[in-house]
Amino acid sequence: MNHIVCVKWGNKYIPQYVNVLYRMIQRHTTVPYEFHCITESPKGLDPHIHVIPFPKDQPIIKSWWSKLWMFGGHFPLQGNILYFDLDVIIFKNIDELFTNNPNKFMIIRDFNRRRVKDWKICNSSVMRWNSGTMDYLWDDFKQDAQNIMGSNHGDQDWITSRAKGDTNWWPEEWIRSYKWEMIDLGYKAKREGPNWTFDKAPKIIPENRVAVFHGNPKPFNCKDQFVIDHWK
Questions:
Q1: Which fold has domain 2-171?
Q2: Alpha-carbon span 69 to 91, nearest angstrom
Q3: Domain range list for the chain
Q4: Which of 21, 99, 119, 189 is the most buried (most CB within 10 A)?
Q5: pLDDT tens-digit readout, 162-180
Q6: Where would I find the beta strands (DSSP E) of the chain?
Q7: Residues sharing a CB contact under 8 Å with residue 95, sequence separation 6 or more, in sequence order
Q8: What is the pLDDT of residues 193-214, one digit of tens each?
Q9: How far is CA 163 from CA 7, 84, 88, 207, in A?
């Protein structure tokens, strides 16, 4: 079974982000799948979204570290799991994300690849794995959470170091940084209040299907035509 999963923890993202992700996936996926949101608060989510509640007895579930919970053996989904952060725009068919390099753990090579040729850090905005194969990412974290959080900037640094032997990169043309790769490293952005616009349109290559909005702006406050056309 194919599963698509996102995480909404705390108040960084409003329910609209989850609902928009759900609609983008509906438009750009033709294979059978189920869509799930892991959250402590399902209020405002589309009623067709399957909600997986975070356990209330795990105080280490917070901020970006909350993502690691879905790797554990307790996680209720079985099969092929495709994860998306909420600050992405899906604008072309993503069926191949389910089948590329089957049965392997797939993750983004972080977008500093644009600056450093041999960059080998993971970016966890889009990941895929088979249930039961990556349990150690949560199990080991849970055993020593405070030390791991103190010595790693975030979940993707922990994934980089702990899952080194299992890591496989997505094709870089498929999933790209909006501002560093689709716009350019030398981008200029205009900001008016909370809203941003870039000085030129993104360059979309034929293979590109997902845009990642790391840092600022997010799709919610970027008023580029590309975002208006696709983040809905």
A1: Spore Coat Polysaccharide Biosynthesis Protein SpsA; Chain A (3.90.550)
A2: 28
A3: 2-171
A4: 21
A5: 999 999 999 999 999 999 9
A6: 2-8, 34-39, 50-53, 80-84, 88-90, 105-109, 122-130, 167-169, 175-177, 189-192, 195-198, 210-212
A7: 29, 30, 31
A8: 899 999 999 999 999 999 999 9
A9: 20, 18, 23, 27
Could you tell me where the DSSP H helices lie in 86-219?
Answer: 96-99, 136-143, 145-151, 155-162
Reduced to 3 states, what is the DSSP secondary structure of residue 211?
A: strand
Dihedral angle sign, alpha carbons of residues 135, 7, 86, 64: negative
Pair 103, 207: CB distance under 8 Å: no
In the predicted model, what is the mean pLDDT of residues 152-156?
A: 81
- pLDDT of 62 higher than 80: no
Q: How far is CA 149 from CA 68, 159, 194, in A?
A: 12, 12, 31
Does residue 153 surpass a pLDDT of 80? no
Q: What is the DSSP letter of 199?
A: S
